[in-house]
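To whoever is on call:

I kicked off a structure prediction for a single chain this morning and the downstream step that reads the tokens threw a length-mismatch warning. I double-checked the sequence; it's 333 residues and nothing unusual in it as far as I can see. Pasting both halves so you can look.
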Amino acid sequence: MKISNDVVEAIGNTPLVQLRKVVPTGSARILAKLEFANPTGSMKDRVAKAMIEAAAKDGRLKPGGTVVEYTSGTTGISLALACASKGYRLHAVYSDAFSDEKRLTMKAFGTQITDVKSDGKKITEKLIKDMIDTAGRISQRPNHWWSDQLKNTDAVAGYYPLGEEIWNQTDGKISAFVHAVGTAHSIHGATKALWGHNRNIHVAAVEPAESAVLSGEPTGSHKIEGIGIGFIPPLWEPDLVNEITKVTTEEAKQMARRLAKDEGLFVGTSSGANVVAALKVAKRFGPEAVVVTIMVDSGMRYLSTGLFGLSDTGPSMRTSSDRIVPETGRVGS
């Protein structure tokens, strides 16, 4: 086994496993890429590595500088790991709409957090845009660099290896790729790599049914963390997908619970959404096909949310060092 020079170098090369108990007879094989096997337990390690290394290489991020990012937590944790390993600081803009586990994990890596308060813990277009505005203001401070994940063109390249790994692990026999859309970088990066080998691979994008903006429907609120930002991502490329599939929050939650109990895969709600959509595609494609989807992150990040039966109404894990910014307010000093 190769020895990595640091933890960032250890990102990638995650397992691909076949789902068996949740897939009905007559459907295509569904293979799940276990991205929770990355160092922080998430596929977002890939994009954090790509953004940090590109910015450091061209001088946007100075030695000892501070990275600024708005995040639902998953990208924030990955950036926190990369910053800790490479000698940078991270200032994350977060919200009470997302899990306390992700907040505590970022803080464990030394992240400074500014909160933007949500409307009843709902993930909405307004919340995301207020978080973006807050990050923009913080980034004006000296020696701060805003990674601005939604508009960062280095991000897609971070997922090329994901597509290459899937191609190699399936021996090129993949028929369809199914994946949820947040920033859209992961689905686009993997697709570009896969289509570089076979343009006939079917790509299905997944979004929350309650806020199906990619499908041309009105923005709304949902509780599938990490996807469905409530507006069209700035770098969204509709020509890189063949279809868009809608999944409700409740469907995603129920599937996440089934994956834990029936497949031994302890994952979050977005992974549940991926499998719900993959089952729809697999039914159409039939038993000779191979459908690949992504297990985005670990269920350990969602224990406080009620996803696995624990109450999400208990006291917050926010500490006195976290600063709260109302959705319409300004950043504290």
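Update from on-call: the warning came from a stale cache, not from the record. Cleared it. Sanity check on the structure: The chain is about 30% helix and 15% strand.
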